[in-house]
Amino acid sequence: MQERILRSGPLRGRIRLPGDKSISHRYAILGALAHGETRIRHYSSGADCASTLGCLSALGVRVERRESEIHIQGSGVEGFRAPQAMLNAGNSGSTIRMLSGVLAGLPFETRIAGDESLARRPMDRIMNPLAGMGASIDARDGRYPPLTIHAARLHGIDYTLPVASAQVKTCVLLAGLNAEGETVVRENVPTRDHTEVALREFGAAIRVGAGAISVRGGSHLTARDLDVPGDLSSAAFFLAAALMAPGSNLVIERVGLNPTRSSLLDFLLSMGADVKVLNQERRAGELVGDIQVCYSPIRGGTIQKAHTAALIDEIPVLAVLGAVSEEGLVVRDAAELRLKETDRIATVGENLRRMGVNAELAPDGFRVPGRQRFHGAEVDSFGDHRIAMAFAVAGLAADGETVIQGAEAAAVSYPEFFATLRQAAC
Ligand code: S3P
Question: Does one domain contain both 15 and 34?
Fold first, then answer.
């Protein structure tokens, strides 16, 4: 499917976004592991979070979906049943990596795989700590899906993350819930902490200290009634689009503002963006608020070290914003971008080139000089949702028409993206 994008006027009005993808996955998995009925409102409409629900259903968990409200009947890990077939994680790295932490401690064998993109993503980052906990997992070429996860009894581990990854941290903590003794995960670079926040909400025995998180095996989780905040990573596309279109004044309602995610707002502010947070409150341990963004010239900047991990999903659209900024954007320490749904250094570079924008690519990042203009062109999502949406934003600022091939990829996290973009961009 292709989408055609024309240069837009200002973005105005008020919009709401789908529920946060990271939080939706975690609430669904913890709801399945808890005892009783968990109700989740504003669950992500993205295909990735549907993949998590599909896997849980295939594991015998009762899941009912009424539009964006999900009801999950959890009966603890003992309620899981051997699936009839291979579990399908679709395009979702979060589903396969986080759920594998649960599957590793089950008393029966499971198999899990996904689409072609997922088949190229490394799983040794979860296989290594899980093996250290007593799990037995086979993978294609020792590191790629499909994974065959044999029945095992797990024991706790004290594990320091070698890569900054919230998916790996979550996988080990979920495995720890069903392991004997204590599991400790240490991180040198902080990553999103939605798992820690949600575990506390569900009543798990969890301790969070400086750079270390520990859980006790056998903790009893209790069902909860929860609202998922809007997805800040989806908000990033609208923030960038509004900052690029003179006259914009847009309010994005009820967005998750967890401090381990909101470096995006700090980075935009540091570049001179007119962005304000209104009506902030805490719900189930997560900060939520409205974001008002008005057009403003952007200075440009550098993303490196710990900031790279904190902004990893937003980098494609920040590259687009960087091209029209005064000084451009430099991204370093971002080799992880090459291991996402696509090699995002390559796919961002290729689409920028097609739109007549220069960028210098490096093994671990890129430099996009500022004060450039986008020219309408045919770009490709390469099957990656964030690439489809980032280049729709570029299209709004381009001369002429931009055609996005493979635009349907946006549905992985945000099926309503193009409709909401058309509503906001007058
Ligand atoms: C996620 C963690 C990040 C992020 C992904 C969602 C999560 O991945 O890119 O979109 O929900 O924990 P990594 O853990 O691989 O960095």
Answer: no
Given a contact cutoff of 8 angstroms between Cβ atoms, the answer to whether 186 and 169 are in contact is no
Residue 12 CB burial class (10 angstroms; 0-12, 13-18, ≥19):
middle
160 and 26 both lie in a single domain: yes
Residue 8 pLDDT more than 90?
A: no
Give the nearest ligand 1 atom to 192 CA. 12
Among 180, 207, 227, residue at a domain's last position = 227
Average pLDDT for residues 321-350, to the nearest whole number? 98
Total domain count, the chain: 2
Looking at the fold, whether 9 and 44 belong to one and the same domain comes out as no
Q: What is the mean predicted confidence (pLDDT) over 211-233?
A: 97
**Same domain for 96 and 133?**
yes
Q: Rounded to whole angstroms, how far apart are CA atoms 177 and 214?
A: 10
Considering only CA atoms, which of 109, 100, 187 is closest in space to residue 143? Answer: 100
Asked if residue 256 and residue 150 are part of one domain, the reply reads: no
Q: Are the beta carbons of 244 and 396 closer than 8 angstroms?
A: yes
Question: Cβ-count burial of 36 within 10 angstroms (0-12 exposed, 13-18 middle, 19+ buried)?
Answer: middle
* Three-state secondary-structure class, residue 234: helix
Atom of ligand 1 nearest to the CA of 339: 15
CATH of the domain at 172: 3.65.10.10
Q: Do 251 and 212 belong together in one domain?
A: no
- Residue 209 CB contacts under 8 Å (≥ 6 apart), including other chains: none
**Confidence category of residue 196, pLDDT binned at 50, 70, 90:** very high
The pLDDT mean for the chain works out to: 98
313 in catalytic set: yes
Catalytically annotated residue among 20, 193, 313, 384: 313
pLDDT number for residue 426: 76
In which domain, by residue range, is 301 found?
2-19+230-424
Query: Best mutation site among 20, 23, 94 for ligand 1, i.e. most ligand atoms within 8 A of its Cβ?
Result: 94
Check whether residue 93 and residue 176 sit in a common domain.
Answer: yes
Q: What is the mean pLDDT of residues 285-292?
A: 98
The last residue of one of the domains, among 174, 194, 227, is: 227
What is the per-residue pLDDT across 127-145, written as a single tens digit (0 to 9) for each? 999 999 999 999 999 999 9
Q: Does the pLDDT at position 67 exceed 90?
A: no
Percentage of residues of the chain with pLDDT beyond 70: 100
Query: Does residue 276 sit in the same domain as residue 187?
Result: no
pLDDT tens-digit map of 352-404: 999 999 999 999 999 999 999 999 999 999 999 999 999 999 999 999 999 99
